[in-house]
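User: I'm designing a mutation panel for Transposase and want to avoid disrupting the core. Could you give me a predicted structure to guide residue selection? Please restate the sequence first so the numbering is unambiguous.

Assistant: Good idea. Sequence first, for numbering, then the predicted structure tokens:
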Amino acid sequence: MALLLQAGIAYHLYNRGNNRERIFREERNYIYFLKLYDRHISPVAETYAYCLLPNHFHFSVRIRDDAPDGQRISRCFANLFNAYARSFNRSYRRSGVLFERSFERKAVTDDRYLRQLIIYIHRNPQRHGLIDDFRTWTYSSYQTLIGTQPTRLKRDTVLTSFGGLSEFIAAHKDDFEDL
């Protein structure tokens, strides 16, 4: 049985398309997924970082202290993925499973791992050869975290964990251990 998400714990959450198929084909898919994510996940989790790629996604989240029990938290994620899959299947006249199994989750055990994870998530599009500079990937939290526009992301928490904005930017330039 999959690990139940627990209140007060940070996680690396990720999944990909079934058979590594694309789960995002057009800009509207990315936008709709993030809209659904906000609706279903923001009530139970704080988001530190994310990156959506054509056939997979990554999130760094912390389950809220006041979140319901683990099964209800997992149900929020299932609702997100099911709602997106139904819409995607309807839009592209397809049927069947969109995502691989249950989404993967790894507990974030310390601040160093959290910082490495955030960098890993942001660098993912460049690592997969989708773009030459990860900082220009549209469907990532990097630009939002270094920006000043209002956001539901936990910008202050993330930047503080790096020691500030300039340290956050510098850390993304440095080499880091792959996760």
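For picking mutation sites, this is relevant: The helical segments are 27-41, 70-91, 111-127, 142-146, 155-162, 165-173. The longest strand covers residues 45-53.
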